[in-house]
């Protein structure tokens, strides 16, 4: 029989051991900043099948940087850099250029841990040469923009890295009706993106909409709110058809939050799995327009109003539980996803269709879009096709998980990840790469843009592999 003093001593010893373990001793460090990446005008805009040249700026496009690091004393345990960009996708070599410019500039920074995502505004500069037929002079060229933006982003990362300081993090859940499934379903099972909902054969909206909002908040050692990440399962394309530079709804959201919480606040927009979503109504359009008119709000202001209200709902919870020692884990690995097979029927159809665009310079986007499918078919036939290689990032930050993907990923895949994840909240960040659509099986059966072979480098099977690999990594991070 052990004496009470001995038992008490043993318990105190164990408590001391646990209290001084690296996990509990870790201090979170935070750095954040924002930079304007709006180039010299005029500039070509991307996100549509037609050429658009912007001569004015309605709102600047920005890159918003968040640096997180956990330390045990002077020892760095883990770190990550998030860069949220008002771009349509992360392509044109911009991610590689940013990493290249940071090489050997910041001791202790692993370039592999720099994550970039796009908010998917369709009124941001073009990043791929040859995407559209453009004048050779008098317009900022895509390669020029990529070089300009990459330098600005690299400089911003250096600033945030050098200014990181002890901080705290909190997480919360809010709600905002932003996402609207944009695929109309008709009698016979076929579907159409942005299809009419007033025709006799309309039968419903094809899929689910996620109206939750995952929110992270970060405070410095003066208890000032310096950064927030807002994860909404919807792309920022409310004003996608305009011919002006515009950051879409994220600009008024940032302005509203800064007005209340201070100009030091950096706001990162993270689009969740939302390949089948849009921030505009598919039906009840007249009633929606009337209510905005009665409130004296534009569409962007209305969406901002909803997002800010949902953010405040999440913030009210996050501010009650601030963590200076939240466990930070970050895994980066390359996964391979099977390509969607190009069928004989698709090859035959596209071979006929592409002839109509051969000699029309205004149709270069569509021509190239279809030609890429024919090129893929040739690779299939030659046996030289390779799986899609994707850099997957998964993180644990305290009770929450974060996972990235390259695509416009249909919402069903994000729902699976969130539902099956062991984390209290799971943030899914899409468009961390070139951004082709990854549809579910239901959408492929329905057809139409976003769920046809021209839109899908990776199909439903690849989307499921991505889901399983993501969950495998998250589960490993939450094992005790």
UniProtKB/TrEMBL annotation:
InterPro entries: NEUT/ALK_ceramidase_N. Keywords: Signal. Residues 30-184 form the Neutral/alkaline non-lysosomal ceramidase N-terminal domain. Residues 1-25 form the signal peptide. It comes from the Bacteria. Pfam families: Ceramidase_alk. This is Neutral/alkaline non-lysosomal ceramidase.
């Amino acid at each position: 029989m052990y004496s009470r003093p001995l038992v008490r001593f043993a318990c105190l010893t164990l408590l001391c051991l646990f209290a001084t373990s690296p996990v509990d001793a870790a201090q979170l460090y935070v750095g954040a900043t924002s930079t304007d990446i709006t180039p010299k005008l005029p500039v070509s805009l991307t996100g549509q099948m037609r050429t658009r040249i912007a001569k004015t700026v309605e709102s600047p496009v920005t890159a918003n940087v968040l640096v997180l690091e956990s330390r045990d004393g002077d020892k760095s345990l883990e770190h990550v850099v998030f860069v949220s960009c008002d771009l349509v996708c992360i392509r044109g070599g911009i991610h590689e250029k940013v990493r290249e410019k940071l090489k050997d500039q910041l001791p202790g920074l692993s370039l592999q841990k720099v994550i970039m995502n796009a908010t998917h505004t369709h009124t941001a500069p073009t990043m791929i040469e040859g995407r559209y037929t453009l004048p050779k002079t008098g317009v900022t060229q895509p390669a020029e923009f990529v070089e300009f933006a990459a330098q600005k982003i690299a400089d911003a990362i250096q600033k945030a890295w050098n200014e990181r300081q002890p901080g705290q993090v909190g997480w919360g859940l809010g709600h905002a009706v932003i996402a609207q499934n944009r695929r109309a379903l008709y009698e016979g099972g076929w579907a159409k993106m942005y299809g009419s909902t007033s025709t006799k054969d309309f039968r419903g909206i094809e899929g689910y909409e996620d109206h939750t909002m995952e929110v992270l908040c970060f405070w410095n050692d003066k208890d000032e709110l310096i950064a927030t990440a807002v994860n909404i399962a919807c792309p920022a394309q409310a004003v996608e058809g305009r011919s002006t530079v515009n950051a879409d709804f994220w600009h008024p959201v940032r302005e509203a939050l800064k007005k209340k919480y201070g100009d030091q606040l950096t706001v990162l927009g993270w689009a969740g799995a939302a390949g089948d979503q849009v921030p505009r109504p598919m039906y009840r359009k007249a009633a929606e327009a009337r209510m905005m008119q009665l409130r004296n709000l534009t569409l962007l202001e209305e969406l901002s109003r909803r997002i800010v209200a949902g953010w405040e709902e999440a913030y009210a919870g996050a501010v009650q539980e601030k963590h200076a020692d939240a466990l930070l884990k970050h895994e980066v690995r390359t996964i391979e996803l099977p390509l969607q097979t190009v069928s004989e029927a698709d090859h035959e159809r596209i071979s006929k269709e592409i002839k109509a665009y051969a000699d029309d310079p205004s149709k270069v986007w569509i021509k190239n879009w279809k030609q890429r499918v024919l090129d893929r078919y040739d690779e299939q036939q030659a046996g030289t096709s390779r799986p899609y290689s994707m850099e997957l990032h998964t993180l644990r930050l305290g009770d929450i998980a974060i996972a990235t993907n390259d695509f416009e990923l249909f919402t069903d895949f994000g729902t699976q990840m969130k539902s099956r994840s062991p984390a209290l909240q799971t943030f899914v960040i899409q468009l961390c790469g070139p951004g082709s659509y990854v549809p579910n099986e239901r959408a492929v059966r329905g057809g139409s843009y976003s769920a046809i072979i021209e839109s899908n480098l990776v199909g439903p099977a690849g989307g499921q592999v991505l889901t399983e690999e993501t969950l495998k990594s998250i589960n490993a991070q939450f094992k005790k």
